[in-house]
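A reminder from the course coordinator: this example appears on the midterm review sheet, so study it carefully.

Given structure:
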């Protein structure tokens, strides 16, 4: 396949450049991490990884030092991260880019609060979600002498993880690029975007992808090369240029990719709301206060999957192992319904309200943004005439409300 850059895309960027600059100036006001209302680098941390660092460094949490893979497996177990959440990326879009290529992909593993990166021969990278500050970033070597790891908080990660791709707050970056033969980016897609709303044909570039036979178009499993006619892409079969045995499982499962994307979009949006609300409370900035309602609208649309793209006609399956791991902590109402219940035939979930609404990141939202979000969710699920949410039929709306009223503290208390 030959890909050509289009002048039209350049013109679109130029046309919207003034608005983007204004948005960036506004973001810079509420995303000053050193501002007293945030104090990102000095505030006491409450994320799950920070809480166990002393146990890791003292050896109270014992890890397997037999080899790199056994160390990784024991660390995943200690952090309660599903091993089958593994996705593999081979584009050099990471801090450890010198180690990453189609022959040595980087693995990502995650649960709802911790994201772990691992590349064979490299360091362990951690993003741990603080319920008020967003991503807290750590990096450390896999010890060679059977000693406990020495964990260091990373500032370099912030160059990418607190910028345009994350809405200027400490969050999660997922790139989609056409990589060259060695993994370097030749062209990129879905710039400044994360989340389940991104069309599938713009995703997965630079990633290995398994279980994606029903997707008709995507950028996974290809490399590119510049030619006089544009970029020529060539297929790259997972496991063909690298050895699966270097990783715990032989998958880079489509379902894990989709769940990772959904969570990343949530994290970046919910912490945009956190930072904006705190700054409004601290400064009384009128321009920011006027944007609170718009931010609440955006978060509600995301939570209720308003912009989910059309699902593959044949659906997707996902590995049985990952499905089981993902559902192992489902929170169900008295009739057994859960926001985590997968659909995978017409859409990702049976009940289109994100299970991430149960996360500490949501429940700890400042009241100035949380209250309008709750009101807008209730209105969306109660008003059948609201044109923004007509894709949810009456039965699905009622089921979501039942689940929330039965399982969520913000609905139980009202």
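Designed residues:
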């Amino acid at each position: 396949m030959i890909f050509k850059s289009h002048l039209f895309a350049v013109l679109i960027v130029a046309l919207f450049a003034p608005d983007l600059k204004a948005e960036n100036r506004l973001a810079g006001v509420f995303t000053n991490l050193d501002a007293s209302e945030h104090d990102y680098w000095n505030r006491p941390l409450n994320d799950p990884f920070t809480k166990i660092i002393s146990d890791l460094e003292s050896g109270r949490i014992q890890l397997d030092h037999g080899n790199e893979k056994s160390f990784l497996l024991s660390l995943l177990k200690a952090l309660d991260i599903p091993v089958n959440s593994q996705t593999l990326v081979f584009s050099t879009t990471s801090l450890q880019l010198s180690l990453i290529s189609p022959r040595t992909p980087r693995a990502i593993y995650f649960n709802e609060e911790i994201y772990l990166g691992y590349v064979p021969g490299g360091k362990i990278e951690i993003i741990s979600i603080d319920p008020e500050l967003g991503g807290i970033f750590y990096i450390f070597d896999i010890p060679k002498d059977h000693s406990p790891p020495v964990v260091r908080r990373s500032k370099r990660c912030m160059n990418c993880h607190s910028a345009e791709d994350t809405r200027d707050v400490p969050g999660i970056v997922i790139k989609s690029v056409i990589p060259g033969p060695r993994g370097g980016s030749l062209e990129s897609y879905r710039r400044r975007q994360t989340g389940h709303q991104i069309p599938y044909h713009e995703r997965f570039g630079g990633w290995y992808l398994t279980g994606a036979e029903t997707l008709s178009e995507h950028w996974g499993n290809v490399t590119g090369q510049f030619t006089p006619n544009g970029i020529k892409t060539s297929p790259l079969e997972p496991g063909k240029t690298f050895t699966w045995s270097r990783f715990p499982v032989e998958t880079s499962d489509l379902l894990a990719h989709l769940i990772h994307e959904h969570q990343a979009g949530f994290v970046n949006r919910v912490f945009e709301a956190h930072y904006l609300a705190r700054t409004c409370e601290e400064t009384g900035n009128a321009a920011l206060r006027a944007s609170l309602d718009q931010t609440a609208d955006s978060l509600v649309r995301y939570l209720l999957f308003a912009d989910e793209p059309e699902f593959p006609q044949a659906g997707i399956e996902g590995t049985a192992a990952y499905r089981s791991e993902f559902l192992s902590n489902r929170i169900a109402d008295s009739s057994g319904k859960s926001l985590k219940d997968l659909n995978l035939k017409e859409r990702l979930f049976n009940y289109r309200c994100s299970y991430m609404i149960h996360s500490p990141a949501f429940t700890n939202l400042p009241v100035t943004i949380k209250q309008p979000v709750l009101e807008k969710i209730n209105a969306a699920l109660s008003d059948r005439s609201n044109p923004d949410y007509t894709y949810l039929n009456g039965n699905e709306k009622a089921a979501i409300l039942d689940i929330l009223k039965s399982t969520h503290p913000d609905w139980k208390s009202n």
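Residues 254-283 form the longest helix (30 residues). The CA atoms of residues 4 and 230 lie 5 Å apart.
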